[in-house]
């Protein structure tokens, strides 16, 4: 980002121009006038609404918004549920699932994405054909992805049934119907959807590495494995960071996939906090609790994104 | 980076190791290609099978007697909730929502990017940062206030309708969704155009100023004609995102006639009455996926570029 | 009254003062070159003349009219940019006539003007092409065409040759000089290349850190630099600036140059500047251009004050038209410029002649010229 002072056009006067007419002052303000609606929309509908949600989380709102402040009650209830493990509360399930899903989803996507990118970077014939195959799931709606995987993982119809027909009758795979394992099917479908994109990010990173560095390392006697471990992967650090941010953000926002793939799982066992929020706000008439869970989701994202954005937008030294 | 070439080996055995390496690499790549293609393949073949064949046959087998009936049924007859008129109406709902939302958010993004790069003012970076952060918020944190506002606007629309005979689209679910997608899409479109225009030579703008072109003339005559690539990227990105959205769609148009495609598909699949017609479900899913898949096939390069631009910020 | 007058021009951006009170003037038909290292404010100064950046205080007048607050298009100027800034979506003809189109000039008139300019610059055959289909030199011509067609009071050039390769740069430099000579226009030209500055200018302003270090004709700048910076910046190879001390040699002053492992050189100054006597026994910077340090046979015959010294030659660089020899004086590499066929070997001790009439002296503390 270049914010070189000397290259900036700056038509707004720093001091009042005595001779400037109304018309020319309007001209000067025009860029700001054009930007204003978008900025106002963002302030009101993003930041204003966030404040509103935070406010609601401190009220006793049930089915309809109430504006009577009742303090930390909603948060206290969530906090209490956090330790309700027997039987697990919906909130406990949601945040444990978030932990399992977030950890596995990010880890597997990064590992698989990097692995595929390195494989594809070995002067592969047909790379132009393979890349789009790995990447196309990203173009699909989570709902479609969910429908496809729901079918594929259904014990009576999908993979299990197929393997039984092929003679492997002892094969048993019913995770999608099992409340302890259903979250892992969400991981599978999620990884299927996003790993190709992570592959594309890593591939772009690999292609951006200076070929002369590679040649120098080879002359220094590095084996292919050493080359990747010692030179290439350290150079891909920024890509790891970007990919992590993208995946963390996708993971926390995941909602549709759980709905379409598992309909929430047996007894809500596949819920993520996003599903919890939606259910409590719109279906269970616990608006304050729903808002409080939304605030917690937001804070999680803020903790990840804000330092990143700050470092990206900070005026970089020339 | 040029691919790593294994240094030539002297020993004759080296050739074999190299060959085995290549076989392993190609084998792995093919295996993963299968993993990615499998669900789509299963969806596609199932959508051409009869129910009979699905219940008795193999999931992976090609249809013995391909039939187009599930597609026709999904399009025109299947039940979404209680109405049984297929998904075609919902498909058009999505189109009616996507087209204006994409166009408006893209145009606003282009103007914003132009202002933020070529007409900088003090605080421009802060303004951009605030708009950029809006891309990342979990929409759950704005879902409820927006629902409240849209509800009030809807009631106001009804009042208008009763008193002056028109509601100016206030309270119309499609209009609501267009608005919501514009509001939460301008962060992305602004990001795309800002990054593109950041690299756009500022001297062209200076030259046009010396030539006497106004703010809008520069935008229309100089910026826009040279923004084709980023326009394609932004339109595709927005199209895919808005078409695939489920959260807003289910929250603000989850019931009724204005339901977009994704919500309708979810309802079709989760309808519990009667026999589950898997072939029809799969055909409906394919129909829902077709527009974005088509865009991906036709302009995959721009699709990837959009994803990258959305991922790598600043 | 001068044609272009800049009085007390200041530009502040936040806390940073980019231009710190610039005073310049230029006669009608003059060619002013603003030269300096990158970041010295020369491009900002040009942009303020063009109206592309506002000024904090001061005044800019063209032909007696104050133009500070006018929009760029109302200042009767034309500008050629470093990247040429040709609109990529328009043809050459469209590029040249865009300004007229914006002013609402009728199409027929525009066509006439395009044809006239195309003839002057010999770009008639390119008019329907897009900028991407042109070579670097052709783009440069079109950019000049776009400026010429306006027939402005003032031409502004922002490093117009820096994107061209070495040979084309020389050709275009001559072309610009010819254009200036034939059309008699007034030009302000920004460059960081001091050769362009020397060859093109009628007046040069050497800038550093937002200040004009020296303003004068190319000859004044070259022969009489006011301070160490100007002396160092102008000329290629650069002036030798050698740490030395001033000694006395009877009544006259002499310059004492230290050498490694040998006794110092004493150069007697027959016509030392008056201010130098105050520096007796003190360190100074002794400036001598490479062409004033040469083999005794090649030295200027009619120079009144020539001193010869035996110097240890470290490196010899035959450059074709000249031969450069590098020696070490006062702890610094010192370049001498010799005839191409001079017989000189590295590692030998060779007599070289200092032309002391051309020598200049600087105060190391203030970096100013001792006059």
UniProtKB/TrEMBL annotation, chain A:
Top-level taxonomic group: Bacteria
Primary location class: membrane
Keyword Membrane: yes
UniProt-annotated location(s): Cell membrane
Pfam families: BPD_transp_1
Keyword annotations from UniProtKB, A to Z: Cell membrane, Membrane, Transmembrane, Transmembrane helix, Transport
InterPro entries per UniProt: ABC_transporter_permease, MetI-like, MetI-like_sf
SUPFAM superfamilies (UniProt xref): MetI-like
Transmembrane segments: 33-55, 98-121, 133-152, 181-206, 227-252, 287-310
Residues in ABC transmembrane type-1 domain copies: 95-310
Topology term for the membrane: Multi-pass membrane protein
Family of the protein in this entry: Belongs to the binding-protein-dependent transport system permease family.
Protein known as: Sugar ABC transporter permease
Lineage summary: Bacteria, Pseudomonadati, Pseudomonadota, Alphaproteobacteria, Hyphomicrobiales
TrEMBL record, chain B:
Intracellular or extracellular location(s): Cell membrane
Recorded topology in the membrane: Multi-pass membrane protein
Full protein name: Carbohydrate ABC transporter permease
Transmembrane segments: 23-45, 97-116, 128-154, 174-197, 218-239, 282-304
PROSITE patterns hit by this protein: ABC_TM1
Cross-referenced Pfam families: BPD_transp_1
Domain of life the protein comes from: Bacteria
Similarity section: Belongs to the binding-protein-dependent transport system permease family.
Signal peptide start-end: none
Chief place where the protein resides: membrane
Record keywords: Membrane, Transmembrane, Transmembrane helix, Transport
CDD domains attached to this UniProt entry: TM_PBP2
Start and end residues of each ABC transmembrane type-1 domain: 91-299
From TrEMBL, chain C:
Regions annotated as coiled coil: none
Pfam families in the record: ABC_tran, OB_MalK
Keywords attached to this entry: ATP-binding, Nucleotide-binding, Transport
Domain ABC transporter: 4-234
A GO molecular function held by the record: ATP binding
Keyword Cell inner membrane: no
Domain of life from the UniProt record: Bacteria
Transmembrane segments: none
Family, similarity comment: Belongs to the ABC transporter superfamily.
Protein name: ABC transporter ATP-binding protein
Organism: Mesorhizobium qingshengii
